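Appendix C reproduces, verbatim, an entry submitted by the partner laboratory led by Prof. M.T., so that reviewers can inspect both the input and the predicted structure.
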Amino acid sequence: MATKKKTKKAAKAKKTTKKATKKASAKTTAKTAKKAKTKRKPNPAFMKALTPSSELAAIVGNKAIPRTEVTKKIWAYIKKNNLQDKVQRRNIHADDKLKPIFGKKTVNMFEMTKLVNKHLS
């Protein structure tokens, strides 16, 4: 008899937890729907047009462009000329145009943006 009571209690507990999880999941989907409606605004500091130095202008052009576009154009140049290391994909091998910007032969991709920012004003 004691086992029947325990199983009934366990079944009731399962039903209540299922209801609670359904309510919780309904609330979270409502929150995510609200978040999806609000469009993310870009940071104005990233969109500010900056003038590249003469070394950097050889790659991205001498027109004033935002920092994000500079990074995109450098990556396009790196991929076009196969300058990314085959094994260590994070490393970039500098060619004659990139060497004056980087200041060394091989640069880590995270270090690259820091070095490029020095050539923007």
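The mean pLDDT is 83. Additional entries are available on request from the coordinating office.
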